[in-house]
Design goal:
- With 163 residues, this protein is an all-alpha fold.
- The chain is 72% helix and 0% strand.
- The longest helix has 55 residues.
Length: 163
């Protein structure tokens, strides 16, 4: 054991407090990283939705107009309709709009974790209960994609519809 010049042991920082602070810092960094990832994924799915939906709509409109224009244009119109149906089926299969919304919810959930961690780090002392609350927010962010009803934001569930 090391001693100071006066023969007394050096002051040891409050180890549990430092461990709590390091864990909050780790959670803040994880939340920032996952928030950026969810943002990039939301952008990707938005582009995918447009990339599949716009050609489907355009081909459907052009094919319909061509089919009505003349009897000779029916074969190319049918091919355009098939291509339009393929784009529409691809968009439906990938569920890009739902995935985009899911990533937006996820991004918001991770932003809440990061904000809470930043507030905790601004405090002088962090209690174990504060860390537990932060872990609850983290669990909500991790569970953003679970369930058949689609993603939900963190917090209490919405009120039931009257009826």
């Amino acid at each position: 054991m090391a001693t100071t010049t006066g023969g007394t042991p050096p002051s040891v920082p409050d180890e549990p407090v430092h461990r709590l602070r390091r864990e909050v810092e780790r959670l803040r960094d994880e939340a920032a990283r996952r928030q950026k990832l969810a943002h990039r994924r939301a952008e990707f799915w938005a582009r995918t939705d447009v990339a599949l939906g716009f050609p489907a709509a355009l081909l459907a409109a052009v094919s319909g107009a061509a089919a009505l224009a003349s009897a000779d244009a029916r074969v190319p119109a049918a091919l355009g309709t098939l291509a339009s149906a393929g784009f529409a089926a691809g968009a439906a299969f990938l569920r890009s709009e739902r995935r985009r919304l899911g990533n937006k919810w996820c991004r918001q959930a991770w932003a809440a974790v990061e904000a809470r961690a930043t507030v905790l780090l601004a405090r002088e002392r962090i209690a174990a209960a504060d860390l537990a609350g932060l872990f609850e927010l983290r669990q909500a962010a991790l569970a953003a994609y679970e369930g058949d009803e689609g993603p939900r934001p963190p917090g209490p569930p919405p009120p039931a519809a009257p009826g």
